[in-house]
Amino acid sequence: MPGNKYNGHPSIPPNRVERLLRERELRRINRTFNAIEELSDGNRESELFENDLRDDNNWDVPPGEELFDAEAAVRALNDGYERNNARPLKQRLLVVANRLPVSAVRRGEDSWSLEISAGGLVSALLGVKEFEAKWIGWAGVNVPDEIGQNALSKALAEKRCIPVFLDEEIVHQYYNGYCNNILWPLFHYLGLPQEDRLATTRSFQSQFDAYKKANQMFADVVNEHYEEGDVVWCHDYHLMFLPKCLKEYNIKMKVGWFLHTPFPSSEIHRTLPSRSELLRSVLAADLVGFHTYDYARHFVSACTRILGLEGTPEGVEDQGKLTRVAAFPIGIDSERFIRALEVPKVQDHIKELKERFSGRKVMLGVDRLDMIKGIPQKILAFEKFLEENPSWHDKVVLLQIAVPTRTDVPEYQKLTSQVHEIVGRINGRFGTLTAVPIHHLDRSLDFHALCALYAVTDVALVTSLRDGMNLVSYEFVACQDSKKGVLILSEFAGAAQSLGAGAILVNPWNITEVASSIGYALNMPPEEREKRHHHNFMHVTTHTAQDWAETFVSELNDTIVEAQLRMRQVPPLLPVEVAVQHYLGSRNRLLILGFNATLTEPVETPGRRGGDQIKEMELKLHPELKEPLKILCNDPKTTVVVVSGSDRSVLDDNFREYNIWLAAENGMFLRPTKGEWMTTMPEHLNMDWVDSVKHVFEYFTERTPRSHFELRETSLVWNYKYADVEFGRLQARDLLQHLWTGPISNAAVDVVQGSRSVEVRSVGVTKGAAVDRILGEIVHSRSIISPIDYVLCIGHFLGKDEDIFTFFEPELPADSSSASRARATEAGKSPVERWSSEDLTLGKNGSKTTQGRSHRASESLDKGRNSHTGGSNWRSSQENITWNEGSSVLDLRGDNYFSVAVGRKRSNARYLLGSADDTVTFLKMLAASTSS
Ligand SMILES: O=P(O)(O)OC[C@H]1O[C@H](O[C@H]2O[C@H](CO)[C@@H](O)[C@H](O)[C@H]2O)[C@H](O)[C@@H](O)[C@@H]1O
Ligand SMILES: O=c1ccn([C@@H]2O[C@H](COP(=O)(O)OP(=O)(O)O)[C@@H](O)[C@H]2O)c(=O)[nH]1
C-alpha cells in the first residue's frame, strides 16, 4: 500500500488515511472543475502536460474518451465549494529527474523535434495529472551553442519541460560513468567495477566530481524556477546530491527524493567509497521514498550502520532532524492501456499479430537491453524448455523486445553482442526454413504496437536479476483482460511484492526452474489463469501512477507540517554571541560542564568495524579545548566544574593540570584539582546489588562484540556505542529483561537507558541532586567574594540527569518545559524574556526569596561539611544555598542563565548545541573574548 512506513506498518495511521481520502476527494473535484473549465473555454493550451506529450507521439486518447458525466461533475463541484468555500488549487510540482520525458533531436540551427523517451520512470510520471507539474532534466543531447539552447528551451517550455544543459564531458563522466557504471550496477547487486590500475581509481574520482557538479547544475536550474510553496520532487540515483544542494539554497524548500532502483543491503552499499557523503546528501530531503519496504529498510540500516544515526519507525534521525523514510510502490496509468486496446490502430496490430503467429503460443519479453534484466538467462531458460519439450518446437515463439540503452557504456555494448550470439545459436539449433523460435528486436516500439503485443501474449517472461519495480509486468496485466495470459516474474523485481500472488515467481538464476515454469504456464488450465489474472488486474488497476504521486506529495506536505510541530518541542539553538556578551558583563561566573560527548574528542564513526577499540573507549578531552579551558579556569571571576558519570581516574587523567572542580560518578565524588577527592555519597548507600548486576553485564559484554562495561563505585554502565547498532539494541532489550526479572527486581536502584548504554545506579543519584552539594563545597572551600551572577550549564546528559538544568530554574508552572519556552520564543519573545529578572534573583538580601529558594547558610555549609564524612542525607535541589551571613550565593537574573543540551533534541535545557564540536567552538569564543 502506498505510504507504508518502512517498518512495515500495514497502513498509514488512521487520521492520515481519513485526511488522504478527503484530499483525494478534493482532487477528484478539482479534476472535474478543470475539465469543465477547459472544455468551456475551449482552451486546449491548458491541457494536461501528459496529453501534450502524447499528441506528438501518437499516444493519443480516442476521441470522446475524456468525456464525463457533466451533471455529476457540477454536483460534486458544488459540494466541494460548500465544503471548502473556495476552488481547490493545484499544487505546483517541480519534478527533477536526470532524463526529461522527451528526447530532443536537432532538425536545424534553431529547430528541434521532440520524441518521448522510453523507460519506467517516464511512463509512471506521465500518469501524474493532479499537479501543476513542470519537469526539469536533461534532454539527452549536447547543445553547445546559445541559439540551439534558446530554441530547445522554447520548444520544451511548450511541454512544460525545462532543460538542464550538460556538456559531453559531463555526460560521459556523470551519466555513463558514475551513474551507469558505478551506482547502477552496485544498487542492482552487481558490485563495483574491478580496478586494475591506479588510473582507474583516478577516473572514479573524476566521475564522482562530475556527479557532484552535475547535481549542482540541476540544483541551479531548480533554484531559478522555484517559487515559494513549490514541492520539489527529485528522482533516482542520478540525483543523490540534489536534496543537499537544494536545502543549501533554501532550507524551507519542500524536498522529496524517490529511488526507482533497489536500494541494496547496507553490506553492499558499504563498499562504495563515497557511501557516507551520498547518504548524508539524501538525508537532507524531507521525505525519502522507495518502491518496497525492503529497499527502505536497507536504506535506514545503511544510515544506522554506516553513519551511526538513529533509525526510528518514522525514518532516520540526525541530531533532532528527522528524514522520513517510507515505501511508495509505483503503478501505471492502467486506464490508458485499457483504453488503447479499443483504438482502431491497435486493433489492426492485434489482428496482424494473431495472423502472423496463428497456431503458436506467444511468449513475450520487453526490456531495456540491460544487464539487470536477465535477458541471457531468459533466453537460456527458453532454450532449455525447447530442449526438454520437442513437441513445443513449432508451437511456441518468444518475442524479445530489447530496447537499446546506455549504448556508450562498454558493459552494455558487451551485453548486446552476448545476447545476439545466444539468440543466433538457439535459432540455428531449433529454427526451420519457415520459422524461428526467437524473434529478437533491438529497438523500441511505439505505444500502440506495444499494447497490441501485450494483448496477444500468452506468457510474459520477466527475469530481471534485480529491478526496482518493473512496469512492463504491470502493463502486460493491464492489457490482458480478455486473454488472461500468465505472468512469469522474477522474485528479484519489486513487482514480485505486489503481483507475486497472481504471477509465477521464479529465481532467474535457476535456469531449470524458469524452464519448467515456462512449461507450467503454457499448459495452465483456463480457470487457474483467470484466477491469477484477476488478482493481478485488481492490483494494477487500483494502484495507479496517479495514486503513487499523490500519496508521495501528500506525505511530503504532511512531513513538513509534522516537522514544524516537532521543531516547536525542541529548544532553540544557543545564541552564542548573547551568551558571550552576558558572560563578559558578569562579575562571578559558574561554568558547569559535562564531559562525555560534550568536551571529548570525536572517535571513529560508530558501527564501523576494524578500528582501534581500546583507543575508542578512552575518553579524551578534545585537543582544541586545552588552551581555551586553561584560560577559562585561570580567570579569577570564573569557577569551572566538570560533572561527569565517569570515575575519578578518568577525570584526573584529563583535567589534573587545570585549576578546576571535578565531580566524578555523577557528583558522588568531588575535588578541586588543588585538593583531595572527597565523597558526597550519602551514608548507608546500599550497594548490595552490584555483584549480581555485574554478572549480567559480563554475560552481555561477552556476547556483544565491541560492547564494554564500566564498574564504578556507585553505578555500573554497559555501553554498546561501538557495537553493531541493531544487534546492540536487541541485546540491550534482552539485558533489561534479565535485570528486571532478576537481580534488581527488589533493589533500590534506577535503570537509566542511554541511546547506546544501560546504566544501573542507586536510587536518587543524579547530577541535579549532586549540584547543590557541589555548590556547597565550592562555597565552603573557596573565597567567593560576590554572589554568582552568571551560570552556564552545558552537557550531553541522560534524561535522568537533566535535573541539573532545572536546578537553576525558578519553580515554574507545570507547563514550563523547554517546549513552552520555545512557544514563547515563537511568539516573539526569547525564552529568557519570559521570566523577569526578579523571578530568578535569589534572595540577595533575604527580601526577594522568590520560589522559596533562599538557603540557610548554616544548613548548606553543614551539608557540605557533613558530606565529607558521608554524614548527610539526600537533599533536594530545591534547597537554597546562601552565605554564612544569610545573603545568597546566587544572584542570577533570568537572562544570565544558559542551560545547553549538547546533541539532543528534546531536553529540559533552555538551548541546544549540535555536537561536542559546537561546544568546542563556543568555549573557544568564550575564552578568546576573555583574553581580549
Ligand atoms: O534513462 P535511462 O538511463 O535510459 O534508463 C531508463 C530508466 O531506467 C530506470 O528505471 C527504473 O524505474 C522504473 C519506474 O520506477 C522501475 O520500474 C524500474 O525497475 C527501474 O529500473 C531508472 O531508474 C530511470 O531513472 C531511467 O530513466
Ligand atoms: O519499446 C518500448 C519498450 C518499453 N517501453 C516502456 O519502458 C518502460 C520500462 O519500464 P520498466 O519499469 O519495466 O523498466 P526500466 O526500463 O525503467 O528499467 C515501460 O513503461 C515500457 O512501456 C517503451 O516505451 N517502448
TrEMBL record:
Gene Ontology terms: biological process: trehalose biosynthetic process
Enzyme class of the recorded protein, top EC level: transferase
Catalytic reaction annotation: D-glucose 6-phosphate + UDP-alpha-D-glucose = alpha,alpha-trehalose 6-phosphate + UDP + H(+)
Polar residues bias: start-end ranges: 867-878
InterPro entries membership: Glyco_trans_20 (IPR001830), HAD-like_sf (IPR036412), HAD_sf (IPR023214), Trehalose_OtsA (IPR012766), Trehalose_PPase (IPR003337)
Gene3D superfamilies (UniProt xref): Glycogen Phosphorylase B, HAD superfamily/HAD-like
Chain intervals for the UniProt region annotation (Disordered): 818-878
Basic and acidic residues: compositionally biased ranges: 823-837, 856-865
Transferase keyword on record: yes
GO molecular function: alpha,alpha-trehalose-phosphate synthase (UDP-forming) activity; trehalose-phosphatase activity
EC number(s) recorded for this UniProt protein: 2.4.1.15
Keyword Glycosyltransferase applies: yes
GO cellular component, one term: cytosol
Entry keyword set: Glycosyltransferase, Transferase
Stated family: In the N-terminal section; belongs to the glycosyltransferase 20 family. In the C-terminal section; belongs to the trehalose phosphatase family.
Protein name as it appears in the record: alpha,alpha-trehalose-phosphate synthase (UDP-forming)
